[in-house]
Specification:
By secondary structure, the protein is an alpha/beta fold. The chain contains 17 helices and 15 strands. Helix 5 packs parallel to helix 6 and helix 11 crosses helix 17.
Length: 424
């Protein structure tokens, strides 16, 4: 198997996750270039992957001029930059692995698909949950006909308080106006992809409801200040930025990223000063933001099957739940437990048999933070083998299949805003 040469565009957390596969599997992947406008991050990448000055670029155009020998480009930029960076990558004729979501506008998605076809470029989307042993095994059982034809699907995602606060209340994805994506696309693009991927039929119509009703000014305690450091409620507020980022050090790879310094070298004084002016230090109730903190949708498929999805943000425990009912059986489980139950209808007893599928030992997770239940490692593992000619992967699909989740979100948001069902 030949070693795959990869260029990384956007060396943030996700870019580092994909690039670090080269450290875990040095015989399979080599990082040959990193492109990022942040000079500090470029130096980190150079040191981490032993790159020289001719392999680190602040502009993509300079990377193209350098004519670096590369097999695929990983686009790990922020989603508001996805469209023009994806266009640049495709125009240069490179295959691309792009972080989800692809883009937030239908016309931009159409243009990316059109250009990929015109340039004959392969485009893979980082729907990493597809590559986790949990969902990959469920997909295999459905495709094998183990539960018959899919009739209904129930899914939900519970987003843990610290995660939602850090990413979608105070963080980079708190405003659709800024990042370009509603929370259903920025956070739940994984889940929308699973709904479309696991059901062999096509989504036809969607109805959606959503609200921002928890993290709003009206819910702020009396006398609350703009920033947490000088708020009289700081010690007893469950959303205190001081509690989350100083006392508990939640998600440091996001909170301290803009300080351009190794996390373990940032002093307490530097952190406190940062929280006095940054959105990460602002009151969760009054920080500017417009994304929903709860959402529900129902999908009607062309073959008459249905699916429902509920997003609940600010929960005590993070988890994803799935229950798929087929004509001959059903599958039920939680991703965080890394196991699910498959039930098969038993004609003789007019009851069912039950089998527990435990996937714990199949998970390879070498990420320092998260890892998506083995999905981060899984997508790179499958990608390397696909580019080497192996086509057995259930998870890697054509770009046209990967865009289905985006079309579902576009329809869901249209439904939410107009108050009536929308065509997908």
């Amino acid at each position: 198997m030949r070693k795959i040469k990869i260029a990384i565009v956007g060396y943030g957390n996700r870019g580092q996750v994909y690039a670090d596969y080269s450290l875990d599997e040095p015989n399979e992947v080599e990082i040959v270039a990193v492109i990022d406008p942040n000079v500090y991050k470029l130096q980190v990448a150079k040191d981490r992957y032993n790159l020289n000055c001719n392999q680190a670029f602040t502009r993509y155009a300079d990377f193209v001029k350098a004519n670096v020998d590369v097999d695929i480009v990983v686009n790990a930029t922020m989603e508001q930059q996805h469209y023009y960076t994806a266009i640049e990558i495709l125009k240069s004729g490179h295959d691309m692995l792009i972080e989800k979501p692809i883009v937030s506008k239908r016309e931009e998605l159409d243009e990316i698909v059109r250009l990929a076809n015109e340039k004959n470029c392969k485009v893979f989307v980082c729907h990493v949950l597809r590559y986790s042993p949990f969902y990959k095994s469920i997909k295999a059982l459905i495709d094998q006909g183990e539960i018959g034809r899919v009739v209904s699907m129930e899914m939900n995602e519970h987003v843990w308080v610290p995660h939602f606060l850090t990413s979608y209340v105070r963080g980079k994805w708190n405003s659709e106006k800024v990042c370009g994506s509603p929370v259903l696309l920025a956070k739940c693009c994984h889940d929308m992809d699973l709904i479309c991927w696991l059901n062999p039929s096509k989504a036809d119509t969607v109805s959606c409801y959503g609200h921002r009703s928890q993290f709003v000014k009206e819910n702020a305690p009396k006398g609350a200040t703009e920033f947490c450091y000088n708020c009289p409620h700081e010690k007893d507020c469950q959303y205190s930025a001081i509690a989350h980022y100083i006392r508990r050090d939640v998600m440091p790879f996001l909170v301290w990223d803009s300080l351009d310094k190794p996390y373990d070298q940032i002093t307490l004084e530097e952190k406190m000063e940062f929280l006095k002016t940054s959105d990460y230090g602002r009151c969760a109730y009054t920080v500017d933001g417009d994304v929903m903190d709860r959402q529900n949708l129902i999908v009607d498929f062309e073959d008459g099957s249905v699916a429902s999805f509920t997003l609940s943000c600010g929960t005590c425990k993070p988890d994803r739940y799935i229950h798929i009912v087929g004509t001959n059986g059903e599958i039920e489980g939680k991703l965080e437990e890394n196991k699910f139950v498959i039930r098969r209808y038993d004609e003789k007893t007019i009851s069912y048999t039950e089998e527990v599928i435990d996937l714990t030992k199949k998970i390879i997770n070498k990420a320092k933070y998260g890892g998506h239940s083995g999905g981060d490692y899984g997508i790179m593992n499958d990608l390397v083998r696909y580019l080497n000619g192996e086509r057995e992967s259930l998870s890697i699909t054509h770009l046209h299949d990967s865009v289905a989740s985006h079309l579902l979100v576009y329809g869901a948001e249209e439904s939410r805003k107009n108050g009536k069902p929308a065509k997908v």
